[in-house]
Amino acid sequence: MVKAGNKIRQPLISIITVVLNAADTLEKTLLSVLNQKFQDFEYIVVDGGSVDGTIDIIRKYESKLAHWESKKDKGVYDAMNKALSLIRGKWVYFLGADDQLFNILGSVADYLKDEKTIYYGNVYRPNMGGLYDGRFSAYKLACRNICQQSIFYPKCVWEKYAYNPRYPIFADYDLNLRCFTDPDLEFRYMPLTIAVFSDEGGISSTKIDSAFQRDKLHLIRDIFPYWIYVLMALRSFFMMFLESFGLQEASKNVYHSIRKMRSVPSVEKESHKQNS
Fold first, then answer.
1. What is residue 267's three-state secondary structure?
2. Selected residue with higher pLDDT from 262 and 187
């Protein structure tokens, strides 16, 4: 275990990067964190047994890391769950090994007031050529996930939840759905762009999480208002109907049209607490 300096301090934010064979991108990721003007954070890097030069890059910066290790794991979320056992910060942020954090932590820190609130902002997606994805309502979250690289979780989330290993790609989506409907937690949007999210070539963009796809509607039915479940069931049926006739492009257009909907009644779960 490598600590930053000789003093053990209680940082405001714990930043976690899990990595496997990302020698081409990891250094930019590390520097985007380590070069922040705001320094009240610890940085934890967990490697899954890389063999491509990733370890050499980590060792280059190990004096600035609170902890790093390299050992086999059962996947990205298993590694994240292990990393969570190491955190000391009041807030937790995950940054992918091919993503880059904007110099934004100082601005984010101004928002981190309520330790039962999950704060989230936007990310920039280069392949999409724009920001993702503003303020989320319950219906919007049922349609698509809040990007993990835009979220700052209070430590209390990890005292109650962990990533479900059943979902190898969308365990973060499952977590956000559960947190959004948890009466003890709030979500609050920050009008900030947090990171560059690499949206080309990642596991979420190239593979299908069959278990999550099978369970998603049932999960929404169990924890969300029933009208959201009905809308999602109709949406899913309509898109499958189009695809059954080979109208994949039409189904994509339907998806993106629904994505832009703003007329659905907002049931955002935002904190109603007023700052004193």
1. coil
2. 187
